Amino acid sequence: MLWQLFVATSNHFSRTLDRNRLHASDEKSMLEQVLAIAKNAKQADIERFLEGFPRRYLAVHSAAEVRAHFALYQKLSAAPLQTELSLSGTGSR
Predict the structure, then answer these.
(1) Which residues contact 43 (CB under 8 A, 6 or more apart)?
(2) How far apart are CA 30 and CA 53, in angstroms?
(3) Which of 11, 32, 70, 91 is 20 to 30 A from 1 (CA-CA)?
(4) Where are the alpha helices (DSSP H) in 1-93?
(5) If you ran DSSP here, which 8-state letter would residue 24 be given?
(6) Contacts of 20 (CB under 8 A, 6+ apart)
(7) How many alpha carbons lie under 13 Å from residue 35 in its C-beta half-sphere?
(8) C-alpha 61, offset from chain centre
(9) Which residues contact 35 (CB under 8 A, 6 or more apart)?
(10) pTM for this one?
(11) pLDDT digits (tens, 9 = 90+) for 10-62
(12) Is 40 left (phi over 0), alpha (psi -120 to 50) or beta?
């Protein structure tokens, strides 16, 4: 958590995130991958979800993870707080 705080503070002061934002319509490959596994999703909705994310989001998350995040995003109108807990061999995330 301390590292995340450091990185967020560094990004804020250096404004690197301002220059490295996603434009979802330019990310055809990822959009196609997410659409292929997302049930009943529309491309415009996925683009709206991704628009403005830091560019590194697509570098560190697979299409399956993006689809899972998008699914949580779609539930926000019904419940304004969404969480997911995943267990791994040595812990959770």
Answers:
(1) 31, 35
(2) 14
(3) 70
(4) 2-14, 16-19, 28-37, 43-50, 56-60, 63-74
(5) G
(6) 54, 55, 56
(7) 13
(8) 7
(9) 41, 43, 46
(10) 0.67
(11) 777 766 555 677 777 778 888 888 989 988 889 899 989 998 888 888 888 99
(12) left
Distance CA 61, CA 86 (A): 15
Helix orientation angle between 63-74 and 43-50, rounded to the nearest 10 degrees: 90
Q: 38, 67 in Cβ contact below 8 A?
A: yes
The amino acid at 21: R
Q: What is d(CA 3, CA 87) in angstroms, rounded to the nearest whole number?
A: 22
Q: Cβ atoms within 10 A of the Cβ of 54, count?
A: 15
